[in-house]
Amino acid sequence: MHEISQGLVQAANFSDDERAAVYKVIYNRRDVRDQFLPKQIDDNVLMRLLDAAHHAPSVGFMQPWNFITIRDVARKKQVHQAFSKANEEAKALFEDDRQALYASLKLEGILKAPINLCITCDRTRGGKIVLGRTHNRQMDIYSTVCAVQNLWLAARAEGIGVGWVSIYHDSDMRQILGIPDHIEIVAYLCLGYVEELFDVPELEKKGWRKRIPLQNLIFEEGWRGFNSGLPHLDREDVSTAIPSACD
Amino acid sequence: MHEISQGLVQAANFSDDERAAVYKVIYNRRDVRDQFLPKQIDDNVLMRLLDAAHHAPSVGFMQPWNFITIRDVARKKQVHQAFSKANEEAKALFEDDRQALYASLKLEGILKAPINLCITCDRTRGGKIVLGRTHNRQMDIYSTVCAVQNLWLAARAEGIGVGWVSIYHDSDMRQILGIPDHIEIVAYLCLGYVEELFDVPELEKKGWRKRIPLQNLIFEEGWRGFNSGLPHLDREDVSTAIPSACD
User: Fold this and answer.
1) Residue to substitute from A61, A107, A144, interface B, most B β-carbons within 10 A
2) Structural domain range at position B119
3) B225 domain residue, yes or no
4) Which among A22, A200, B82, B227 is placed 20 to 30 Å from B17, CA to CA?
5) Does the pLDDT at position A233 exceed 70?
6) Entry pTM
């Protein structure tokens, strides 16, 4: 062990069991639409989830996120109405068998989940010039998505399922929640305890799409080995890995 | 326990120790720039990290990500050059003391980290109409960011640090890695084993910004209690929570 310096500390070690728990939560996380139980989520538990989100990485340590909790049934109904309108539009974009399958899917748990949570990104929080955002203006949005994923994983470890609702018009949600223009709505989540989940992602279970083999998604030294000048594995073209069910 | 139905299974339970491990990895994750050790990362370990990323949520189960590994020193040097050019431009955007502080920060570990990893989003993968992306065209990008965060957390549990490099011109990275136009570059990461880390985020440690109190970031039923018609906590204005050091 070499000398600790410059305000650094020994990095926390993870035992085999701890590492296994991290993978367990990653593999057991699901996008939940219909398995929410009515059991309430205590404020202490909710705060643990929000604190997990708050400890996501953020560009320039900007912490651009806000968290809006929604428990009021009337407001949830407004959100559900916004979803329903958009979902009808979405359904019409698919054809034939895919449209029938789409229509059969439950894609949100807005009314069933005890807590809805809107996670936003305040693009003005760090001033105009933000360290690390100078050449990629989206980095603050990406930070906020990292917060979503932290919360999602923490929730699973708490026995709480999360579903991400993305089918609504931004302007509708903005009006329902009174969100000003400089604030970007990144995620609208449904949270509730779950006892049952699908053993694989619901869209896989229901025949919408298949899991792509991981090895088809990896390249070495450049896009499909572009100009690498190095030996690289001759991988199957990724387009052939996409099942025919995916239009 | 009620009856399991519709292809659902009992949701995995997490023991107190397992839940603690999940929070531990969330709280101990850091953006690493300079603490990378030269120790190589075995292919098996790398594949575990990539598989964790591959099990992120994705809109419409689109799995839009690809993973490009970079180990070649000559290519890393090209990337480092692209960073350096952009970082000079970035530095010039800050003034006076902030510029001096900016210049003192090490913001990447491109050459030091044994593996660099570019994570991309193939916006065409699911066809033109993607379930869940119909009303938010960015959802595939957000899915890819979730994959980044999964990998980041899994890496920490493996003793591996990750740093996200965002200071480069997209066109430079695109050219270096041969990335086609329909593919979005989401993250360029540096990966390597670490023994030391900062006990709080490096930018906090070095006086760039402070952690915002969580309670200042939470609203109930709408932006700052907008039109809620419900009792809500009278929270401090979030703008006052931002320390003066943040310009």
Assistant:
1) A61
2) 31-200
3) no
4) A200
5) no
6) 0.92
Answer whether A221 sits within 8 Å of B11, measured CB to CB.
no
What is the number of domains present in chain B?
1
Residues in chain B: 247
Whether A64 maps to a domain, the answer reads yes
Bridging pattern class, strands B115-122 and B183-193: antiparallel
Indicate which CATH number applies to the domain containing A69: 3.40.109.10
ipTM of the complex: 0.92
Q: Is residue B217 part of a domain?
A: no
**pLDDT per residue as tens digits for the range A76-101:** 999 999 999 999 999 999 999 999 99
The runs of H, that is alpha helices, within chain A are 16-28, 43-54, 73-92, 96-104, 139-157, 170-177, 202-205
Structure tokens at B77: 């040097």
Class of residue B75 by CB neighbours under 10 A (exposed 0-12, middle 13-18, buried 19+): buried
Query: Tell me: the pLDDT tens digits for A176-230?
Result: 999 999 999 999 999 999 999 999 999 999 999 999 999 999 999 999 866 544 4
pLDDT tens digits, one per residue of B70-98: 999 999 999 999 999 999 999 999 999 99
Separation between Cα atoms, residue B187 and residue A142, nearest integer Å: 9
Residues 84-113 of B with CB under 8 A from A: 86, 89-90, 93-94, 102, 105, 107
